[in-house]
Automatic annotation (TrEMBL):
Binds 1 [4Fe-4S] cluster. It catalyses: a menaquinone + succinate = a menaquinol + fumarate. This is Fumarate reductase iron-sulfur subunit. Belongs to the succinate dehydrogenase/fumarate reductase iron-sulfur protein family.
Amino acid sequence: MKLTLKIWRQKNNKAKGELKTYPIDGIEGDMSFLEMLDVLNEGLINKGEEPVVFDHDCREGICGSCSLQINGEPHGPDRLVTTCQLHMRMFNDGDTIVIEPFRAKAFPVIKDLVVDRSSFDRIQQAGGFISVNTSGNTIDANSIPVNKHDADESFNAATCIGCGACVAACKNASAMLFTSAKVSQFALLPQGRIEATERVLNMVAQMDKEGFGNCTNTGACEIECPKGISLENIARMNREYLSASLEG
């Protein structure tokens, strides 16, 4: 395939960025989107030009690093896949593809297509964990019965990889789906109920502090999420937050 790429180039968070056009050919349908960018960068390096900076790690849909806005959609036109799992057969010969970083105040651009998503880390640090007594009187977690439905729902919430697609898809750049997934992961389990009140209050407070917007109730976050995290988690977090607020 021959393609025209319009890629966001920006030296750093202070510099003014712009879309630059790059023609590319010889792209096979079985290539992943990141492999296509590798081909582009190899050509740029051979010509003595600076390669396009983009984030990646596992390239297996696990780490969430490869977060790109492709033709206006987080992770591109496919569903339930990350950018590294997106294949070029989703595009046609002669297509123009616009590639940008995720846009959010809380995701400042580092360079080109790479953004700083450490705001997600700080939300998790605020309460996305359980404290375990290791004084010698610990109880084996497997000895605590857990309802099968609750265990399944907790596991589904835990599949969130923190890629930020929910934020990029939301017109308010809301992190409600991400935060609610981390809250639900523990709120559904007996091990997580001990700190439930403190957890949801702290995580929501940190989410607001980071500058994320409010939920729009449009559902774009669930549609664009590569792991299919359900909007039910937002409803659960709202219930948890209301209950915690009343207790406080």
